[in-house]
Amino acid sequence: MIYLDNNSTTPLLPEVLDAMLPCFTESFGNPSSIHSGGRRALFHVKEARQEVAGLLGCQASEIVFTSGGTESDNLALKGIVNPGDHLIVSAIEHSAILVACTWLEKHGCEVTRVGVNGLGQVEPDSIRAALKPNTRLISVMMANNETGVLQPVEEIGRIAAEADIWFHTDAVQAAGKVPVSVNRIGCDLLTISAHKLHGPQGIGALFLRAGTPLRPQLHGGHQEKRRRPGTENVPGIAGLGRACRLAKAALTNGSVDRIAALRDRLEDALTSLIPDTRINGRRAARVANTTNILFENVGGDALVLALDELGIAASRGSACSAGAADPSSVLMAMGLNGQQSRSSLRFSLGKQNTADEIENTISATPGAVARLRAKSAVFWSA
Known about the structure:
Elements: E1 2-3, H1 14-20, H2 36-56, E2 63-66, H3 69-78, E3 86-90, H4 95-106, E4 110-114, H5 124-130, E5 135-139, H6 153-163, E6 166-170, H7 182-185, E7 189-193, E8 204-208, H8 234-250, H9 255-273, E9 277-279, E10 290-295, H10 300-309, E11 312-313, H11 329-333, H12 338-342, E12 344-348, H13 355-381
Helix pairs in contact: 1-8, 2-8, 3-4, 9-13, 10-13
């Protein structure tokens, strides 16, 4: 398979697996145990905490391990906001944020969902205009999972700081693709997930700036300084740490630049070879691996299945909403209509993708689109 759905999940890098394997064998102990078996496990947890902190530019003590991006997002919002508080988010957030906001509204919180411009970017002035006396938290993602469009989080961070409001950013789709510095962003909380950067599924982290109040959503033991109790997933944590170390290196060793060149080649070729095709958010700053392409008059789900039969994996958008007949809320917020949204596909590259795979995708896609358009024309003429 030519796997071009890396924003949904990434394959585990061999180096990451190597870091995890000892935690299943000689370092399988409980990190809370004081005997040598526990100390060996604790070593892997401490090492990984340093590696995650190294990617984000923070202190190791500011890293809270969780089960992934969804838990980190929920912990950030529900751990900060109280009944009666006001929360500002963007309309293009991941469902982990948007559904949590719906829950918060049902429990006495007020939520403002700020729209985006035609490029898929939040306008900082719209955040400033949404501020209220009871605003407690702003949460705006760093990079959109469907389009790859980067958001002006540094400007939003300054707005939050000026208003003395907590600021959270979901950096799940940004970490490892662009440099992430919590101090440059000015955020108080930040979310990452291992399986988006060639680490294992089921493990993530929340950056929690020292001094930021957080109400835990789970109650039990003393783990993670009681911010997220429960016996640590030591193999997963070790994998996240190694993935973060490799992701940091990729920002300077040419790996990200190589992926960007492959993405640009794919975009240029498909828009040149296939009529009535355009890139959603192309003029905006984006992460290097992501392209969202509108194929007019083609059902997106049908094209995903047609490409799958040819051995190419792509998607309409977030795997969390896969199979939903509804149009993408992200693309609708950018001004596309329902039909255009349903006719858009996301191709997202990873470190494992090669130039030959991109050329094979370029060769296969025009024929698949043409066949689907022909079938559609026959259907509507019947």
